[in-house]
Specification:
By secondary structure, this protein is mainly alpha-helical. It has helices at residues 7-16, 26-36, 38-45, 64-103, 121-138, 144-152, 157-160, 166-175, 178-196, 204-222, 239-245, 257-267, 270-293, 302-309, 315-318. α4 crosses α10 (204-222), α4 (64-103) runs antiparallel to α13 and α5 runs antiparallel to α8.
């Protein structure tokens, strides 16, 4: 069993591993570790600074402030990215509810397995069961679901989507009949074509890959998990996406942060996407200037952090 360590013992362990912790900073560092959790901070952000020759030691000249700064930069990037992912989640739910409800006979057809792909019957049944439980749970509280059940005896999908998780939304899109999946993909393609004065066709498989990826990154940002070096466990389908964006697919294949940023170009209006790119550019510029002026990351060049994010040096010209 892993024994409990006091804050003083945690500091001593880090110093013995070669991490620079000035005496005058120890009180602040201990307070930070108590609030942020030693495991989340050290285990989450130490790897970049570990010695290539001995993983139990830190690289020479590595200070606790390096780990702290990387932790804060990661948090700031999560805050930068999350709003766009949440807006896309809302957009997708709205498109899903609109086209599903318009195309099928009743407002609660989403609870009928025959309106999903026949070859995915078991997964559709599981989704319907989960949505039924969600309705049952929410019906016990004052709100729109309780209101619709009381007055109309059903809950329209455009009401339910407000309470669905992004994961349930992704699953519903995946299980939809092909014509509906294609309609939603075409609608997003039309927005891209209008904004960029071109003609592309986003396929349902392309869109499914994008929304699966967005779901992972959305949850990482929302739940304060480590973002900068996250990679999808299963490589995303990116051939069609890379062709549309005219990007070497090798830059997107690993499913890292740059993959998500590139994908967002296909599903966010140009004005909003350009604004996001501007915020990312400012974030990198400010971070590089800060770390240089404050002599942080002496053992790790800032470009190495960008490499872990998947951002090549010419990233702005690629997207």
């Amino acid at each position: 069993m892993k024994p409990f360590k006091t804050l003083d013992e945690q500091i001593e362990i880090l110093k013995n591993r070669g991490l620079i912790i000035p005496d005058e900073q120890q009180t602040q560092i201990k307070e930070f570790l108590k609030l942020e959790n030693y495991y989340n901070v050290i285990n989450g952000y130490k790897d970049l600074f570990l010695s290539d020759h001995n993983p139990n030691l830190f690289k020479p000249n590595t200070a606790f402030h390096d780990i702290y700064t990387l932790h804060q930069l990661d948090r700031n990037f999560r805050r930068l990215l999350l709003p766009d992912l949440l807006i896309f989640e809302t957009n997708l739910k709205s498109l899903l509810a609109y086209h599903f409800s318009r195309s099928l006979p009743t407002c609660d057809s989403y609870l009928n397995v025959k309106f999903y792909q026949l070859n995915l019957h078991n997964e559709a049944s599981k989704l319907i069961s989960d949505l039924s439980k969600l309705i049952q749970h929410k019906s016990q509280h004052n709100g729109p679901i309780e209101h619709y059940l009381e007055h109309y005896n059903h809950v329209p999908l455009w009401v339910l989507t407000k309470f669905m998780t992004f994961g349930q939304t992704v699953q519903m899109y995946r299980l939809l009949i092909p014509s509906l999946k294609n309609t939603i993909a075409k609608e997003l393609s039309l927005i891209f074509n209008r904004d960029y004065c071109c003609f592309i066709e986003l396929t349902p498989l392309d869109l499914e890959s994008i929304i699966r990826t967005a779901n992972f990154f959305r949850n990482i940002c929302a739940h304060e998990e480590r973002l900068y070096n996250f990679r999808l466990h299963r490589k995303p389908r990116i051939k069609g996406i890379a062709n549309i964006l005219n990007i070497d697919k090798k830059l997107l294949l690993d499913g890292h942060l740059f993959t998500m940023i590139a994908m967002l170009k296909l599903i966010r209006p140009k004005r909003e996407y350009d604004a996001l790119k501007g915020r990312i550019d400012s974030f990198f510029s400010l971070s590089q200037n800060m770390t240089s002026s404050m002599q942080i990351f002496q053992s790790v060049p800032f470009q190495e952090i960008m490499d872990h994010m998947g951002f090549p040096e010419n990233w702005k010209s690629l997207i």
